[in-house]
Design goal:
transmembrane helix; 76% helix; YocR/YhdH-like; two-stranded antiparallel ribbon; Transporter; membrane; transmembrane
Length: 444
């Protein structure tokens, strides 16, 4: 069955795919992982992995999805009928389910902070203490996470054109504008250049084996590759559009927003005497302190939180979409029902992650709370594994002539350009992922 829903334009697809990629990956996770994993050295590794590994993988998911014109599970089944490859799509669906269950926790934190930010005495607090008290509460965080999931479900239930596409056309441009304002202020704070140096000057003495794995995982997380989200998104794309131009634009936007996030956060961290190793709460502790230094800071902070929520939602849309699409198979009449069923199940599954910073904080495994366990499982195991199998599928299972035709459809990319990409997918991407994995396991 052909998909009945499609993006109305190339721009709509790029904004949706960039929104999926940017979200929490670039704005929330990148600064705190960079802060705990070596600063400038981590950023350099992240750039290297993004262009040499992330970009080829993004293209790989694009050619699978648009080539089959079907969601993830059906796409692998169509290209490799009678094989076990559809399980790669199912693995992506399961990963998206787990990822959204703890991703929605941070979405809930943003909703909670957005509500708090309207308080007249919001800036008269110790932000580190406020963050700790906020995420350790029980009902406020559960209700906030529920609200976040209800918004996600509502938009996805409305489909591609009327839901996801319309939301992204407003959310993404506004986010870039406000980031520019925030960076100008951050860079004019006292001692701001120390933060810039920490973020952009690579000191490889601060990098260990785990940090390399984190950089690789971040490149996957921030581009939404490895779970076949982009297989599903690209299945709604016209054959007339250039996949290479779309992928290049998305990668550059992702790198840009990661750079902007670092320039917004780290100057403030060093100016205010805070530690860059703050962890997941970095954004919720540093940004309020930076906005406090700005004229009309509370107003701008409220606007930023709203846009941050929008960016977070765009990523959530893509995660829920891959699951819903895998069940409905493009049948629009069943979309709304399954969006609500799956979305509510994800919320319920995410409750332990929500409470792991509060009443369930004592429940740990390998010294990690539930939230951190799931984050590590997805970012450092499932995403790299999914990416490895996608590379092997495209490099060795996808029929060569079909692959060349899909890669070049709608673009003027030469056969040499295709050959270079195929070489990266066949040899470089799998080898790098395997080496990083072996290094993580301490085998050499």
């Amino acid at each position: 069955m052909n998909q009945q829903d499609q993006w109305t334009s190339k721009l709509a697809f790029i904004l949706a795919a960039a929104g999926s990629a940017i979200g929490l990956g670039a704005i929330w996770k990148f600064p705190y992982v960079a802060g705990t994993s070596g600063g400038g050295a981590f950023f350099l590794l992240f750039l290297l992995f993004t262009f040499l590994i992330g970009f080829p993988l993004l293209m790989a998911e694009f050619v699978i999805g648009r080539g089959a014109q079907k969601e993830a599970v059906s796409a692998y089944r169509k290209i490799a009928p009678g094989s076990a490859w559809p399980w790669l799509g199912r693995m992506g669906v399961a990963t998206a389910f787990i990822l959204l269950s703890f991703y929605s926790v941070i979405g809930g934190w943003i909703v909670l902070y957005l509500g708090k930010s309207f308080s007249g005495d919001f800036f008269n607090h110790d932000f580190s203490q406020m963050f700790g008290e906020s995420i350790s509460s029980t009902w406020p965080v559960l209700i906030s996470q529920f609200i976040f999931m209800m918004i996600t479900i509502f938009v996805v239930s409305r489909g591609i054109k009327n839901g996801i596409e319309k939301a992204n056309q407003i959310m993404m441009p506004a986010l870039f504008v406000l980031f520019a304002v925030l960076i100008v202020r951050s860079l004019t704070l006292d001692n701001a250049m120390e933060g810039v140096k920490f973020f952009l000057y690579p000191d490889f003495s601060k990098i260990g084996g785990d940090d390399i794995l984190f950089a690789l995982g971040q490149s996957f997380f921030s581009l939404s590759v490895g779970i076949s989200v982009m297989v599903t998104y690209s299945s709604y794309l016209s054959k007339k559009e250039s996949l290479t131009k779309s992928a290049t634009t998305i990668v550059l936007l992702n790198v840009l927003i990661s750079l902007l996030a670092g320039l917004a956060i780290f100057p403030g961290v060093f100016s205010l005497g805070l530690e860059p190793t703050e962890g997941p709460g970095l954004l919720f502790v540093v940004l309020p302190a930076v906005f406090e230094q700005i004229v009309f800071g509370q107003f701008f902070f409220i606007v930023f939180l709203a846009l941050f929520l929008f960016a977070t939602l765009t990523s959530a849309f893509s995660m829920l979409e891959i699951i819903v699409a895998s069940i409905t198979k493009g049948e629009l009449e069943n979309r709304a029902k399954w969006s609500w069923i799956i979305g509510i199940l994800i919320f319920v599954f995410g409750v332990p992650s929500t409470l792991s910073y509060g009443v369930w904080s004592d429940f740990t495994l390998f010294d990690k709370i539930i939230f951190d366990q799931l984050d590590y499982l997805v970012s450092n195991i499932l995403l790299p594994l999914g990416a490895l199998f996608i590379a092997l599928f495209v490099g060795y299972r996808y029929p060569r002539e079909m692959l060349l035709q899909e890669f070049r459809a709608g673009s003027s990319v030469s056969v040499k350009g295709f050959a270079l990409w195929l070489m990266l997918i066949r040899y470089v991407v799998p080898v790098v992922i395997i080496i990083v994995f072996v290094n993580m396991l301490g085998l050499f």
